[in-house]
Amino acid sequence: MTDQLRGDVVLRVNGEDRVVNLDNRSTLLDALREHLRLTGTKKGCDHGQCGACTVLVDGERANSCLLLAVAAEGREVTTVEGLADEDELHPLQRAFIAHDGFQCGYCTPGQLCSAIGMLAEVADGMPSWISADLTATPDLDDDEIRERMSGNLCRCGAYAGIVAAIREVADG
Amino acid sequence: MTAGSGLSRLEGHDKVTGAARYAYEYPVEDVLYVWPVGATVASGTVTEVDSTAALADPEVVAVIDHTNAPRLLPAVTADELVLQSPTVAYRGQIVAAVVATTIEAAQEGAEQVLVRYVEHGHKVVLDPEDPDLEQPETTNAGFPGTSIKGDVDAALAAADVVVDTVYTTPAQHNNPMETVAIIARWDGERLLLHDSNQGPWAAATAFGMLWGIPPSQVDVVTEHVGGGFGSKVWPTAGAVVATVAARVTGRPCKLMLTRQQMYTMAPARTATRSRIRLGARSDGTLTAIDHDALQYSSVIHEFVEQTGSATRTMYASDNLRIRHRLARLNLPTPRVMRAPGKTPGMFALESAMDELAYALDLDPLALRLRNEPATEPASGLPFDGRHLVDCLQAGADKFGWASRDPTPGARRRGRWLFGTGLASAMYPVYQQGGKATARAEPDGTFDVWVAAVDIGTGSRTALWQAAVDALGVPPSQVSIHIGHSAYGQAALAGGSAGTASWGGAVRKACLELSRRVAEHGGAVPSDGLEVTADTAEDQLAPDRARHSYGAHFCAVRVDADTGQVRVDRLLGVFAHGHALNARTTHSQLLGGMVMGVSMALCEQTVVDPRLGLFVNHDLAQYHVATNADIRGLEAHSLERADDDVTLVGGKGIGELGIVGSAAAVANAVFHATGVRVRDLPITPERVRAR
Ligand code: FES
Ligand code: FES
């Protein structure tokens, strides 16, 4: 790989600007895991098929394995490491523990980021595939949570706990 | 008293903050990335590996193939003997590996390696007419390949009613969310690994065998594992290649299989075909049970799924015959996936029992109660805690089974057809010997070490609870340390035996340490007190048939136009004895049931007979249950004192929930539609093909 195919990239992650020298082909996921040592974000498929790598980009959920790191420049990336406020866990993190919303924990960072993004989508009035009325304020019942969280696979089958945890936070 | 309480997981905070480190995530200086290259023929001989183009990239450090790889010694299966010969036994078998300074260069390099082959003919289809089928002596877990009691043919000829049907299950892939992942380093003749596996001690032993060094020279750290479900019980070809790369380059090497590579460089569950024949008197008494099971192994290693093993123990019959036959195919050696043998075998048997109930015009629950054995049918052994009937009856009550009208295809609302079905579950009790060390410090703190692993079962928390209970001290004074081979010989997370086996050793060490502390009048000397216990001699005598039991009750709706099946409710009742931790036990039972729904409705690895290829080798095409597929799950546990047979009380839990669940779904689909689907998964086109 010749030098012109590498370059410095400035990534803003969890509120901090980080400069990394990267192969231009690096995904955001590999940049986080291999270069910034933010290994909380997981790789389950590298092809946008499992959701394990979900992060928030400018507040919206995104599969970091499908995003080239260079394309994330100038955007605000939030990973699982950035969810807690110092030592105070995010309410969803607490709820996942309380409802045993994980077993192996490998899908969990993606589930958490995805759920935060999903709740923001609902607050914005975004319908899902199963919403009966596309313009009404979404009614986030359990089936809506399941539908909206189906991009995040959990092979351990912790879905019941995941839905209960999100339900608790959504209901405040 | 902490045992049994629903304490949340010790590593919960680390898992929700991203702090928990999995194998691939340890920072290592000067590390190289390994990318294996899989064979593109299903059978053949490698004639040339041309690495010129790959090596032209200065970031590519090495290309390894069978001509320049160091020699390995046989360990568990031939699949791990990577890069040892030019022979290709299946498509995807590792024929080369590229080692580079970045992931991107390693992947690109793997694309550049040119491999030439002479192709041989291949066979990849499981065919009951295959002239080369073998009749194995024994199956996995040591069951006889063939068991015969009485005269099955005569009993079938004399039966009032006979069911004679064939059930198939496809090859399935474990697909843990974390793929095979490893960082390997050599320090002289010591091999240092961060590895994702189901038992660091077993990993140290197997890697030691491969490299001809004792397990004490292999250091395996396995702090957190992103699921296994059987796929990480033994070292995979993918993991071994990282140790080869580290040896060749003299540098630390890391590898994480891609999801696609997981389909051939890590194991799967065999496809199975079960012909079941049941003979009964008109009152429902079984007079004959015949289970003829066909499965495959690779051409390089014999692995025989124990498909008929549950049939040995479920229902009474004077005449019982269980046979296993094995095809040898050009596919990777299949190995264990959650409840090997029981999962496909019970789909067949529990579906056939439902068919027999309809043939007899008898309630499927009543049919099972009528055929409850006094002793284990195949072995003649007395049972220790046989609670199948309890599970069936408790489940029927909770589910509301009594009001069910058995007529198939009779409940329609709009485009939906509704139905219910039940199936039994069982899983054997296993327990293995092993070591644990407990240490008391003068400041009143205690440390416990055991080479256990937590693949998501909650074992870390349960073992800590077992230690706290045995020591009888405040929980805050006790620390548990797992996930390191250096803690001594220990069991695998396999056969649902991990926590019982490790917990037995932890308990023994802690009780002995308590006694020693008491001998010192409660004052721990300045250099501390330490006890290492070994439970090798404390194992279960083979004089009883010991199993966990369960019953699944399922409600489905089926779209009358498309054939789409939705599971509305799946209720399981399980008798597994005392649970060390009620919360994680419940999660494991639910997780097994989710995988059962997934198996029933989605999962299949499709083989292209022409190319010998697993066609749908990713998560877009190999479907697993998503959140939207799972509704109305309920798991209930029955605690029965005579179920407390292992050193820590309870029986195994991890695999019980999947067994029988697919049959409960299939039986409910029949009740809804009148269509009997005997081939998994229950896809819309199979439901429509009436
Ligand atoms: S790793 Fe990105 S979606 Fe699976
Ligand atoms: S917790 Fe293991 S994959 Fe979700």
Automatic annotation (TrEMBL), chain A:
Pathway(s) per entry: Alkaloid degradation; nicotine degradation
One Pfam family in the UniProt entry: Fer2
Keywords from the named record: 2Fe-2S, Iron, Iron-sulfur, Metal-binding, Oxidoreductase
Domain of life according to the entry: Bacteria
Keyword Iron-sulfur assigned: yes
Protein's UniProt keywords contain Iron-sulfur: yes
GO MF terms held by the record: 2 iron, 2 sulfur cluster binding; metal ion binding; oxidoreductase activity, acting on the aldehyde or oxo group of donors
Transmembrane region(s): none
Domain 2Fe-2S ferredoxin-type: 7-83
Protein name: Xanthine dehydrogenase YagT iron-sulfur-binding subunit
Organism listed in the record: Asanoa ishikariensis
From TrEMBL, chain B:
Aldehyde oxidase/xanthine dehydrogenase a/b hammerhead domain ranges (all copies): 17-121
Pfam family, one: MoCoBD_1
One term of GO molecular function: iron ion binding
Keyword vocabulary terms for this entry: Molybdenum, Oxidoreductase
Presence of keyword Zinc: no
KW Oxidoreductase (keyword) present: yes
Gene3D superfamilies: Aldehyde oxidase/xanthine dehydrogenase, a/b hammerhead, Aldehyde oxidase/xanthine dehydrogenase, molybdopterin binding domain
Classification via PANTHER family: ALDEHYDE OXIDASE 1-RELATED (PTHR11908:SF132), XANTHINE DEHYDROGENASE (PTHR11908)
Designated name of the protein: Xanthine dehydrogenase, molybdenum binding subunit apoprotein
Species of origin: Asanoa ishikariensis
